[in-house]
Write a structure and sequence with these properties.
The protein has 339 residues and is α/β, with parallel strands linked by helices. 46% of the residues lie in helices and 12% in strands.
Length: 339
């Protein structure tokens, strides 16, 4: 248990100006703090906060009360005050406590539970963030992918953002939606689901899967000239997202599913690349009425499962691929006007 007055002094969280890749948690949402602080101040006798989780970069010594039984597991944990305490989970609680103490200093004698882990480096701290939030109120999917070091597909997706000219510098790593003024083309979560649908069921080693995904998306890039126009600054990312749908999550997901179907039929790059070439003739503009009801509903891009399937169906037909029974069922319902 740690007195509240010590929380703001010794528990740190990463600076907001660090890039998402170098932090161990999401950016502090200052808009949440007044409500959290007010909750403490209005309920000084019965407020409830879950434990803070912190990594300690320093020597820790545990002195047990005895040699056997519960006495051996009970004692004092000694941590030098020059150690670095990095918040892994609870940065909003920490900031709210600091805000509440400014208004009511007497709360400083209250205590909050803290769980300590020895600091094992950035990757471990990021994994702790991903694990701690896996079953809680989930953060944006993109930052979950960014910090998840267990999921192979997340590792593959992060690799593409670093090594592929198609994605390097054009992927929003933290948020799962792009603002109207964003200079990014894709979100990390959209690329993640695109890779997931592309590689699903293919038995490949991680390095093989990464290489295949990179080659696939570079082939798609060659068929979608607007992506390259943004990279060469002949077209802005805002204009491209406004006028075309092929950088949206639904398009990446659908392209991944189509690619998966082709790769299951032929693994030879020369053959499957050739089969993707008709994508050059697809009209990806939002004004194309073929997308209405498929990728676009009421003028807005829809990411529902049904709309993904209808988009996949459209692309399958353009590439001369047969529909699966489930895809045919969804297509029939759409053509009847039931969708």
């Amino acid at each position: 248990m740690c007195p509240l007055r010590l929380i703001p002094k010794i528990f740190l969280f990463d600076e907001d100006d660090l890039s998402a890749e170098l932090r161990a948690q999401r950016v502090l949402n200052k808009g949440r703090l007044p409500a959290l602080a007010r909750y403490i101040l209005d309920n000084p006798d019965d407020y409830v906060f879950s434990a803070l989780t912190a990594s300690v970069d320093g020597d820790m010594v545990f002195e047990s009360q005895g040699d056997e039984g519960s006495a051996h597991r009970t004692g004092q944990l000694r941590i030098p005050m020059d150690a670095r305490f990095l918040i892994n989970d609870g940065q909003h609680r920490r900031a709210a406590i600091e805000l509440a103490l400014k208004e009511e200093p007497d709360l400083g004698d209250e205590t909050i539970a803290v769980v300590f882990f020895h600091d094992a480096g950035l990757a471990r701290s990021q994994q702790m963030f991903a694990d701690l939030n896996r079953h809680a109120v989930r953060p944006a999917r993109s930052i979950g992918v960014l910090y998840d070091h267990r999921d192979v597909n997340a590792q593959i997706t992060r690799s593409l953002t670093e090594c592929s000219a198609v994605f390097k510098g054009f992927v929003e790593m933290e948020k799962s939606t792009l603002s109207a003024r964003s200079r990014k083309l894709f979100t990390l979560s959209a690329l993640y689901y695109g890779n997931h649908s592309l590689l699903q069921g293919l038995e490949l080693k991680q390095d093989e899967a990464t290489a295949l995904a990179q080659t696939f998306w570079e082939t798609i890039d060659a068929a979608l000239p607007e992506w390259a126009l943004v990279r060469t600054k002949q077209l802005s990312a805002q204009e491209m997202r406004r006028d075309f749908i092929h950088s949206h999550g639904i398009a990446l997901h659908a392209l991944g599913r189509v690619g998966n179907a082709i790769l299951r039929e032929t693994a030879k790059p020369a053959q499957w690349k050739k089969r993707l070439m008709p994508l050059k003739d697809v009209d990806w503009t939002r004004s194309n009425t073929d997308w209405e009801g498929r990728a676009i509903v009421g003028g807005r891009v829809s990411k529902s499962h049904q709309n993904v399937t209808l988009t996949v169906n459209y692309l399958r037909k353009r590439l001369g691929l047969e529909l699966s029974p489930e895809e045919q069922r969804v297509e029939d319902a759409y053509l009847r006007g039931d969708a």
